[in-house]
Write a structure and sequence with these properties.
Belongs to the sodium:solute symporter (SSF) (TC 2.A.21) family. The protein is mainly alpha-helical and about 475 residues long. It has a single domain, classed as Sodium/glucose cotransporter. The protein has 19 helices and no strands. It is globular.
């Protein structure tokens, strides 16, 4: 696709871009003085930055590359991922966000584990950390895969080598600035990626001759099914809803941004705006994939749709900008999940065991934790290099173990500590085991782990509540 001169220009631009990000992170790190600065951006993020960090974190390589590829292959069925994210995001902001914010302010929370420990005792930190790391290391690893894809296609770098390069670059960059640097960079990345994606959408729509022409071409080619939301099997629809969708409610990076916002109003308004932007972005990315096949009439390797499309409709200078926009998309997600996963290690595993923790000591452990997360993410990226599969696998672990005890525990005080712990461990262990057994009976782990977690939560609550009532009656006698 690119000649030697263009590949050299791309290589130089990417190197310069990474050096800019490194320098920016080091500059911001000079203002990172406290543990809260590093992990929750000092709890003072303003509206504009908050909106863009919500968007930049949510729209990663899996959406821009994975969704576009899926749009090319399966059409509108991929929109169920967007529908799931939208539904559960609205549920979260309407019924849970304010309570999450107020609890975080009251108890100075940093992680999901802080809430789990408050609700179910300190023993709840361990299953929460395991579930969070399963999801966040998977998503971080997914961004390594995205970078490897970019380097492989634009610079002819070996794919495995590309994953390792992405790992090294993102780890070094993220190590210095923490969430404070991430939020500031997201103001840039969020703007670049949003403008870039919508620009690409409108240009592709123009060259496709409008959506009506796309529909006509699809039907004439016998691919009318791609235009329907029912093109996806029912089981796969529910996989999207119960993993990528339900995961929104227990996204630790979201909870941290709720706590990082400068006020409750900023959090609420900022998240509503970001929901709209995220949903529209996800929708147009899928549509670009469909239009590349039945609008631009391109017969290409589906995994290279993004690159082929930008090369088809843009001159080289704009192609270069779109490659940088793709990098911005990947990096803004990767560093956010780096920080979130590392927060769980330092806050829920290391922190409770450190005697007389000072800000300097906890800052050091926070940065060490970034390194730990990066190694786990690297191994996952090498094991499951498929973008969406890696994302769905990680979110299935988190949803199976945490969704029921966390969300029910937020609104119902009747759940017992024993029930919460039993629900976490049963859902998480079952989902992990089911994944390792390679999905027996063709069932996705979330279809087994989540129902079991819900059943255990209510069954054990009922049994232990009755036991406590009987014990209280005996004591009264």
């Amino acid at each position: 696709m690119f000649n030697d001169q263009e590949m050299m220009i791309i290589t130089i631009a990417v190197i310069v871009y990474f050096f800019f990000l490194f320098g920016f992170s080091i500059w911001v790190s000079r203002g990172v003085k406290t543990y809260d600065d590093y992990n929750v951006a000092g709890r003072g993020v303003r509206m504009f930055s908050l909106i863009l960090t919500f968007v930049a974190t949510a729209i990663g390589g899996s959406i821009l590359l994975g969704y576009m590829t899926s749009g090319y292959e399966i059409g509108m069925g991929q929109q169920w991922a967007n529908i799931g994210i939208f539904i559960f995001s609205v549920v979260l902001v309407l019924f849970f966000a304010k309570r999450i914010r107020r609890l975080g302010e009251k108890h100075n929370m940093v992680t999901l584990g802080d809430f789990a420990a408050l609700r179910y005792g300190e023993k709840a930190r361990l299953p929460t950390v395991i579930a969070v790391l399963m999801a966040y290391c998977s998503i971080t690893g997914m961004q390594f895969v995205s970078i490897a894809t970019i380097l492989s296609f634009t610079m002819d770098v070996n794919f495995t080598v590309g994953i390792i390069i992405g790992w090294i670059l993102l780890t070094i960059k993220t190590y210095f600035g923490g969430l404070k640097a991430v939020v500031l960079q997201d103001a840039i990345h969020g703007t670049v990626q949003t403008v870039g994606i919508f620009l690409l959408f409108f240009v592709v729509m123009y060259y496709s001759g409008g959506w009506q022409n796309v529909e006509q071409n699809a039907r004439e080619a016998g691919d009318g099914w791609m235009l329907s939301l029912t093109s996806l099997p029912t089981q796969e629809i529910f996989v999207f809803l119960l993993t990528i969708g339900a995961y929104q409610c227990v996204r630790q990076d979201l909870w941290q941004r709720f706590w990082a916002a400068s006020s409750e109003k900023t959090m609420n308004v900022g998240y509503w705006i970001s929901i709209v932007l995220m949903t529209l972005t996800g929708i147009v990315v899928v549509l670009i994939g469909i239009m590349s096949l039945h609008g631009l009439n391109m017969t290409i390797d589906p995994s290279l749709v993004y690159y082929e499309v930008v090369g088809e409709v843009f001159p080289f200078p704009l192609v270069l900008l779109m490659i940088l926009a793709l990098l911005a998309t990947v990096i803004s997600t990767a560093d956010s999940f780096f920080i979130s996963g590392a927060s769980s290690i330092v806050n829920d595993i290391i922190g409770p065991r450190v005697k007389n923790p000072s800000n300097q000591k906890m800052l050091f452990y926070s940065r060490v934790s970034v390194g730990i997360v990066s190694v786990i993410a690297l191994l996952l990226a090498l094991y499951i290099p498929q973008l969406v599969s890696l994302w769905v696998t990680g979110t299935a672990m988190l949803v199976s173990g945490m969704l029921a005890p966390i969300m029910v525990g937020l609104v119902w005080g009747g759940v017992t500590k024993v029930a919460g712990l039993a629900s976490m461990w049963s859902g998480l262990a079952t989902a992990i085991g089911w994944q390792l057994l390679d999905h027996p009976f063709g069932l996705h782990p979330v279809f087994v782990g989540l129902p079991l977690s819900i059943i255990v939560l209510f069954a054990v609550t009922f049994m232990t509540s009755n036991l406590n009532q009987s014990a209280n009656r005996s004591e009264a006698l």
